[in-house]
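Lab notebook, bench 4. The sequencing result for the construct came back, and we need a structural model before the next group meeting so we can plan mutations. Quick request posted to the team channel:

Model the 3D structure of this chain.
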Amino acid sequence: MTDSTLRLPAEWEPQAAVLIAWPHAGTDWAERLEAVESTYVALAAAVTRFQPLIIVVADAALRAHVTAKLQAAQADMARVRLVEVPYDDTWLRDSGPITLRDGARFQLTDFRFTGWGGKFGAEQDDALIAGLVEAGVFGYAAHKRIDWALEGGGIESDGAGTILTTWRCLVQRHPEQSREEMTAILREGLHAQRVLWLDYGYLEGDDTDAHIDTLARFAPGERIVYQACDDAGDVHHDELQRMGEELASLRTVDGKPYKLYPLPWAKPILDQGRRLAASYANYLIVNGAVLVPAYGDAADDEAARIIGQAHPGRSVVQVPCRPLIWQNGSLHCITMQLPAGLIDA
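Done. Here's the predicted structure in token form:
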């Protein structure tokens, strides 16, 4: 029986910290490590302006290296905690904890992580949450393992019982299950009241099978920010137009349409002929600010302005994310927020 007092907070609710894992030569970042570290340094400096940052590192040598990097960048080291736990990769949105709360009670929900449907090895990443629990990062929070594949980037929560997700992703993970069956599992596992599904939307260069956090995001005040495409000659145009129509047809619990905030479309970014997924929807909300990916494109500033409009009262900080999309993700994908009260700040 579901304990309905637990809920999945919205990202814009108060946070204790942001959790990341640092890239190193033993990860898939090895080939372009220096470039991607520049993004991680910028991210760490931005987060620590507003709140604590927990950084997972592989060993003592990486701990010392990261400390030196962040000190050189004048990050607020008083807000940085480094924890040594093994990991395969650095996409903590998908391998980190999905934290439910009931007041001061917390549950670290630990869904099975399969490397995005078996595309990559993920044994250490699947054990990451247990490793962080063993390291004492989360105090007395309950740890609940759910043997069903789900990544944090595949769901959006409005904090009030509504989950937004994509059929394209979850049917790839669970081809044997119906939408009704998956809806029931999501409702029970996330203590949600309802699940809204999108059938359209994808990005070339995205190997998550259309994670919702690359496409559409809940924002306060019954808003949805989403990645649009106004270039009729682009291969994404029809699909994202249809996704926009789907979003316009969605209704709040009160039966009202959501307020929609379409984001501009960056010009194609190619790497040795391969299209990379430069989504502005992949931003991160922190206490008092929203951190927005920048790709060195003319649309960067307009995207930041629109995201700021959808999150009034927050500072808007652009983080250079072009190195991240080489590995098919962006800013939100490498982070996981932890709700206020979960850890000792």
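The chain has a mean pLDDT of 96.
Will bring this to the meeting.
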